Amino acid sequence: MAFVEAGRKVFVANRNELAVGLGKKVEIEGRELALFMQEDGSVRILDNKCPHKGGPLSEGIVSGNYVYCPLHDWKICMKTGSAQGGDQGNVACFTVEVEGDDIYVFI
Ligand code: FES
C-alpha cells in the first residue's frame, strides 16, 4: 500500500466539479492527481499515474472501489492504490478531507 498520510493541506476541487464514476485530473504543486467521487459521496485521490506504464488513471473506468487503467486495463484499488489480480504495483493515494463542498488533499 502506498498511502501518503503526512503533508500540507491543499484545496483541490469543489465537490460539484466531480461526478460519480468519472475521474478528474487536477495538477497541484507540479503533481498530477486523479480525483474520484464514490457512490457514497466519499472522495479518493491518487497519483494520476498507473503503476504499469504511467497511464492516466483519471481517464479510467470506475467500478466500485476500483479504477481500470485506460491503457492496458489494470485494475487499481482506489482505497489502497494496489494493483489487483496478478498485476504488481502501487500508486500513491492521499489523505482527503472534505469541508462542506470543498475538497482538500494532504500532499
Ligand atoms: S499503463 Fe496502466 S495498465 Fe498499462
Describe this structure in words.
- The chain is mostly beta strands.
- It is built from no helices and eleven strands.
- It has a single domain, classed as 3-layer Sandwich (Rieske Iron-sulfur Protein), CATH 2.102.10.
- A five-stranded mixed β-sheet has the order 1-9-5-4-3, with no helix packed on it.
- The chain is globular.
- The model has no long low-confidence stretch (mean pLDDT 94).
- The protein binds FE2/S2 (inorganic) cluster.
- FE2/S2 (inorganic) cluster binds at residues 50, 52-55, 69, 71-72, 74.
Q: Average pLDDT, to the nearest integer? A: 94
Helix proportion: under 10%
Number of strands: 11
Distance between the termini: 16 Å
Can you tell me the overall shape? globular
Compressed to H and E, one letter per element, the order equals EEEEEEEEEEE
CATH class: Mainly Beta
* Level-2 CATH architecture: 3-layer Sandwich
The CATH homologous superfamily is named Rieske [2Fe-2S] iron-sulphur domain
User: Can you tell me the number of structural domains?
Assistant: 1
